[in-house]
Design brief:
The chain is built from three helices and 37 strands. The longest helix has 10 residues. The chain binds 2-acetamido-2-deoxy-beta-D-glucopyranose (10 copies). This is Right handed beta helix domain-containing protein.
């Protein structure tokens, strides 16, 4: 055992960006560690595939900042794939994955995320990874395989931006479809579809993540709206607990309480539960069986929490902190049929589509009973409108609770993405709990 301890560090000498990374993984076999060099960019023209159980791809020395090695997509859409068979326990850690989508606004429709993990495997790990600018539909996809995926851990990652907020150029932050999984302590900034999208993923827990719309419009913060692939809308045992979700804040001064936002950044639906929230009511399916509790929302939303087409959900103790507004106008796609959704409110539910949904008592905001139907059709106010609240460490935010936020989108001269302290802005609104749902 002592000998092994002495030999291992030699085996971990980092590989230069001229090496054939795929060949190293393939010949390395079970447990092989592909150790990338710090401050180095590796061009990926075909997805780099894990090939055996317990393999690891990481940066030498496990840095957590901008010196993490960067895997940059230069062909196809996916940088790293661990969704094939026979890949239990593989690990992607301490690297950056640059989808290199900048300037390519219309890469949507492709089926691959920046990172594809999951599949028919158990116990995979993705941690301390920065994933941004995917060419495909998500920054990180945890697939279900043939519904045999189990126990993936997704933690301490720094995700975004993902996609653009123009029509169907959207991309998710984290797309979770693996059962019994944990999504913990991730930061998602400027995903443009859903920040964290949960596709059923029964018995998974999504907790203590931070999601923020900083410079882009996000359709959803956390989504529990998909009924596939875990039929029928199976969210049994899925728990969404203690996450922080922040819509946009004013970027310059308006009046005493509200100001403009130069990017119109907001989250249309803070937390969406049930398919009607996303699609129209002719889609008669339900999400069933989950729990959504102790989440904290702040900033600009069109709807804070919206529930439509849900059964056996526990929705308790979700709170608003700091300042918040519920803003947006009907867009052209809200009025395509004779029915239109309810206008913006903090809490919206469609009672006749709910069965056994325990929605706990609240104080300042009441649940509004109204039509929940394709709420992404709303459009944000004009950038110049005094509609955004102050907060999040920005202009006119509470100085005693604020820490200046650092954008996560920066890319430094070497091309490696700049790292920063994403947790800082979360502290900005701590302490001012004003609403209990
Ligand atoms: C990884 O697997 C995919 C799917 O089988 C394949 O298209 C791709 O070429 C593989 N990557 C490499 C580097 O061989
Ligand atoms: C955008 O896409 C085109 C065509 O696929 C490609 O040639 C170009 O390199 C891409 N640009 C960037 C910045 O990724
Ligand atoms: C998830 O965990 C439960 C309880 O440990 C187990 O019964 C179930 O088979 C697991 N699900 C999958 C898809 O492995
Ligand atoms: C959560 O992730 C951040 C990086 O985004 C890290 O700085 C922090 O230490 C992590 N917290 C815990 C409890 O691991
Ligand atoms: C939901 O999925 C879990 C895990 O596969 C399974 O045990 C359970 O029976 C499913 N529930 C329904 C209602 O199908
Ligand atoms: C309600 O949620 C807040 C914020 O996550 C948490 O601090 C508090 O402990 C929760 N209360 C209960 C009774 O769980
Ligand atoms: C409305 O939908 C059409 C496609 O049906 C799309 O092209 C257009 O951008 C949408 N408008 C808005 C404001 O989302
Ligand atoms: C600030 O401007 C907004 C938008 O015009 C308005 O709704 C709000 O009442 C104003 N607040 C104050 C304090 O004047
Ligand atoms: C909330 O807005 C007020 C101005 O209306 C501002 O003074 C205060 O600092 C804001 N709160 C936070 C937590 O930023
Ligand atoms: C996945 C699923 O169950 N989809 C159904 C949703 O509801 C519509 C309308 O009833 C059906 O056509 C779909 O099959």
């Amino acid at each position: 055992m002592l000998l092994l301890g002495l030999v291992l560090p030699l085996a971990l000498a980092c590989v230069p960006n001229t090496a054939d990374l795929q060949a190293l993984l393939t010949t390395g076999g079970k447990g092989y560690v592909l150790s990338l060099c710090p401050d180095t960019v590796y061009s990926v023209s075909k997805s780099l595939n894990f090939t055996a159980p317990e393999q690891e791809i990481s940066t030498e020395g496990y840095p957590t900042d901008g010196s993490r090695a960067t895997l940059r997509v230069v062909g196809g859409t996916c940088a790293v794939r661990a969704s094939g068979d026979g890949l239990d326990g593989v690990r992607l850690r301490y690297v950056q994955v640059d989808g290199n989508r900048v300037g390519n606004a219309s890469a949507s429709g492709t089926s691959q995320g920046n990172i594809e993990v999951g599949g028919n495997n158990r116990g995979q790990l993705v941690e301390w990874v920065r994933s941004f600018n995917p060419r495909g539909w998500t920054c990180l996809h945890v697939t279900e395989g043939t519904l045999k995926c189990t126990e993936t851990a997704i933690q301490h990652n720094d995700i975004g931006p993902c996609g653009h907020d123009t029509w169907q150029d959207w991309a998710d932050g984290i797309s979770l479809s693996c059962a019994n999984s944990t999504v913990y302590n991730n930061t998602v900034v400027d995903a443009t579809d859903g920040g964290i999208v949960i596709f059923g993923a029964p018995y998974s827990i999504v907790h203590e993540n931070r999601i923020r719309a900083q410079t882009r419009v996000m359709l959803g913060g956390i989504n529990l709206v998909d009924v596939l692939p875990w039929k029928p809308g199976n969210y049994s045992g899925t728990r969404v607990l203690s996450n922080r979700i922040e819509g946009g804040y004013a970027t310059s001064m308006g009046n005493d309480t509200r100001g403009p936002n130069e990017q119109r950044a907001l989250i249309k639906i803070g937390i969406g539960i049930g398919p009607r929230v996303w699609w129209d009511e002719t889609y008669q399916n339900t999400s069933r069986g989950g729990e959504v509790a102790n989440n904290v929302l702040s900033g600009a939303f069109t709807f804070g929490v919206a529930v439509g087409g849900a059964q056996n959900f526990q929705i308790t103790n979700n709170t608003f902190v700091g300042n918040e507004t519920f803003i947006g106008q009907y867009g052209p796609n809200c009025t395509q049929s004779d029915k239109t959704p309810n206008p913006p409110v903090a809490l919206l539910r469609e009672p006749d589509s709910l069965t056994s949904v325990n929605i706990a008592k609240r104080n300042t905001y009441d649940w509004v009973d109204g039509r929940v139907q394709g709420l992404t059709c709303f459009v944000p106010p004009a950038a110049s409108e005094w509609a955004w609240p102050y907060g999040g460490g920005g202009v006119n935010a509470d100085p005693t609770t604020s820490v200046s936020p650092t954008p996560t989108a920066g890319v430094d001269k070497k091309g490696a993405a700049a790292n920063n302290a994403p947790a800082a802005w979360l502290l900005a609104v701590a302490g001012l709990v004003i609403v209990v749902i």
